[in-house]
Amino acid sequence: MTIEDPVEYEFAGINQMQVHEAGGFTFADGLRGTLRQDPDVILVGEIRDAETARIAMQAALTGHLVLSSLHAVDAVSALHRFVDMGMEPFLVASAINGIMGQRLLRRICDSCKEPATPNPAQAHMVGRVLKERIGQWMVGAGCTQCNHTGYLGRIGVYELLRVNDEIRNLITEGATHAALHEAAARDGMRTMQAEGFALINAGITTFDEVQRTVYASLDDMVFDEAAEVGLSEIEASVPQRTHVNSTDQVGATS
Ligand SMILES: [Zn+2]
Fold first, then answer.
1. What distance in Å separates the CA atoms of residue 154 and residue 238, rounded to the nearest whole number?
2. What is the pLDDT of residues 84-129, one digit of tens each?
């Protein structure tokens, strides 16, 4: 069953509900109504408030697979968003199984794509994060196809945070963003920043675009040579919206 705002695509075999806030039908109302029908899988279009978050957590803890999205800077920040909404850390730790962070980057226009010379500081940073040689960077010169922006179309970058036992303990202890991020990196999480850097190296997008979309405080790192730039450094300072899907799953289906 789904609770959406609005229902954008209709699927056969899935019961879909549309939120109508003006008419007094909220995500929380929909979720409560859904639970009475004992569904196996529930999709809550977006978690925007504490009430919806709490019911979604309870649903996850009582054997439902709950899929949802919320806005946060990155996957780790989504955990903190739940705590900020008033959820107890132990509840967040036990209800969430995984979080997928995603952002869209603009692709360089194929019609006016041409080789670019990497700025040394940028190349250094990309090389250090990816631990691989710098590829052929490209840039869009601008043409009528791309309305002289140099970009046409978009491509997604993702990061998957798996909530393992170590991360569960860290959440319960109220660990910092950095500590959680390090634990996720140890568990193999490839960050949206690293995915973006790989797309630069493949000539699909530009450094400026990755900086604008995934990571705003790059200037600090690039010009501070003393700062150790690692996968753990993607920091909660990007003011743009991120779409983070949280998959709450506990045990088998009901
Ligand atoms: Zn173009």
1. 19
2. 999 999 999 999 999 999 999 999 999 999 999 999 999 999 999 8
3-class DSSP state for residue 27? Answer: helix
Q: From ligand 1's centre to the CA of 246, what distance in Å?
A: 36
> Three-class SS of residue 179?
helix
Task: Output the pLDDT for position 214.
Answer: 87
Q: pLDDT under 50 in the chain at which residues?
A: 216-254
**What is the CA(159)–ligand 1 centre distance, in A?**
29
pTM for the model: 0.79
Distance between CA 22 and CA 250 in Å, rounded?
33
CB atoms near residue 92 (< 10 Å): 24
Rounded alpha-carbon distances, angstroms, from residue 174 to 61, 86, 164, 168, 180:
20, 13, 15, 10, 10
What is the b/e burial string over 131-157, where b = at least 16 CB atoms within 10 angstroms of the residue's CB? eeeeeebbbbeebeebeeebbbeebeb
